[in-house]
Design a protein that fits this description.
With 134 residues, this protein is mainly β. It contains no helices and eleven strands.
Length: 134
Amino acid sequence: MIINNINSSNFKKYGWVIEYPDKAQGSKTKNLFRIVLKEPKGFGWRIAYLIVRDKAVNKLEQHPQSYESFEPVKGRSVLFVAQAKDPKKIKSFYLDKPVILKKKIWHAIVTLTNESEVKITENSQVKCVYWQIR
């Protein structure tokens, strides 16, 4: 399997890279602020911290009603994603940039080091659906 580097172009069908677009066009002396994603009212958010120790993927999960961010903190991780339950359509990306997954995107994370650490933000009432692939 090919592991891709994340960029806003090759990741757009799964979600968004958390970055400031056209940073070079902004002020060179003032802070830059941008809202990347705003959920409608009624959806509270939670922030979680994940220690990844898995070295292989045997299932993927999705959240039908929640976006989810993955923000690498420590270690080297690979993010697996798919739009549909088709093992041939699973793509993998080095998780070297913070990203937001769209709702209903199948996903899993493995570590390439002893363990990795990832900050996660998601809907506080998140529902998980699992897809066993092994």
